[in-house]
Amino acid sequence: MRSRTANWFECKIRYEKQMEDGTQKKVNETYVVDALSFTEAEQRIMEEMSAFISGEFDVLDIKRAPYGEIFFSDAPQDDKWYKAKLQFITIDEKTEKEKRSNVNYLVQGGTLSRALKNVDDVMGGTMIDYESVSLAETTLMDVFEYKKSEKAQVDDKPEYEGQEQNEEQQP
Question: Rounded CA gap, 148 and 71, in Å?
Answer without folding.
Answer: 20
